Each structure stands twice: as C-alpha cells, then as structure tokens.
C-alpha cells in the first residue's frame, strides 16, 4: 500500500523538474532574443550615425568646393580680357585648382576650364565667354579613385573638338574602361549632354564607335555604333555562336540584337572575324585569349 504514494511522489517530482527545465529554456531563449535584438538595434544606430556624419561631411565638402569654384571664377573674370590665362594653386594643401582660359576647342570662341582635384572627387567645369562673362556649359564630377584623365579631340568626325573624360570602374570583375563624351555643338560654344561608352575605340573618320561590352573574357559581345548628330545609332553586335550545351561552335554571329534575344532577324553567321574589329582595344578580352 505504501508503493503507490511513493510512485506518485516520484512522478510529481519528475514533472516538476521537466516543467522547471522548460521554464528555464524559455527564459534563456527570451534572453538570447533580447540580446540579438539589442545587438541589431545598436548596429543599426551606429550605421545611421555614420550615415548622418557622412552626409554632414558631404554637405560641408559641397559648400567648400562651391566656394572654391566661386573664387576660381573671380580670378578668371579678372583676366577675361586676356587672350589666354592659366593659373594653378592649392587650397588647404588638399585641393588642387587649375584655371585655364584659352581657345581650347575653336579659334573663334575661347573657353574657360576649371579643374578641382579633391581627395575624394574631381570636379571639371567648362565655361563659354558670352558678353564678357563666363557661362557654364559643362559640369562633370568624377570619383578620384576612378578618374584617369580628360582630353580634347574631335571624337565624332564633324571637325569640331569635343571634351572627353576617361575613367575606369572601381568595382566589378571585368574590363571596364569608360569614356564620357561631351560634343561641341555647331555654335562652337555649348556642348551636348554626356554620352557614356564602355571599352570604346573611336574612329572619327568613319563616325563609328566600336567596343567590348561588360562581361567575362571570351563570354561577352562587341558593339558597333554610329554617330547621328546628338544621337547614337546601333549598327550591330558581334558574339560567338553557341550550341544547346552553351559551347562555342567556332562561328560568329553579327546581329542588331544582343545575345539571347529571340528576334533573329538581320542575323549573319560568319566563320571568321571581320578585320575592322581585330584592332580595337579589348579585342583579346573578347576572344578570351591569354585569359584562360
């Protein structure tokens, strides 16, 4: 008769311990959850604080660079009656300023070009001389890390010199040399909006741009564009033909459509590459030779 109460007592103790264990586990999970939430909130707070500081610094830098530009224009205006004027100086040893007033693009109309080289960014502003004042006609901002150079040359074959800015992408796996083009208009004072090309080779005599698109070596296409005033006409794309297993057949496709486009109209299949593409910059990247 004493056995049943003892068994009952043991069952009660076991249930009590199990219940206690569950309670403790719930408490631990709650603590862990609260800890994760607190960590997330702290990181989010730090991220927002960093973003706020960065935005504040960007505003400060913007105001500072605006003031530097204003001062540079004042200096240039004081020398506007000269045939040409060039001055370079530093601001706070961190920002380099280059003021250059000359007949950079045409013999008839002079232009003022102001470069501001900062630690993070490069600013380039071009002004035309109108009624003895400077009127802004181009403004370009480029990340210092990607900026390469800028040049003046006839890029579209119309006999007028254009403004060309060259830069190289900072992120990504593949060939990524870019050019931003500002075409000088017929008035020889103002410029077009920016045209951006990747890995381009310009042929002004033909009014043609050939280049290699973004992609892995041997796996991307080439393009051929033609200038049409202040627009670009797409003439064709060139890429390797592939079979159902995505392997190259050894033949080339020339089409107005990019690869994987279902529209196969105006498509030509060739056994060899046209000579016009063999000399462009990045051709080896297109073929993949040397990158295996």
UniProtKB/TrEMBL annotation:
It comes from the Bacteria. PROSITE patterns: PROKAR_LIPOPROTEIN. InterPro entries: XAC2610_dom. NCBIfam families: XAC2610_fam (NF047539). This is VCBS repeat-containing protein. It comes from Flavobacterium lipolyticum.
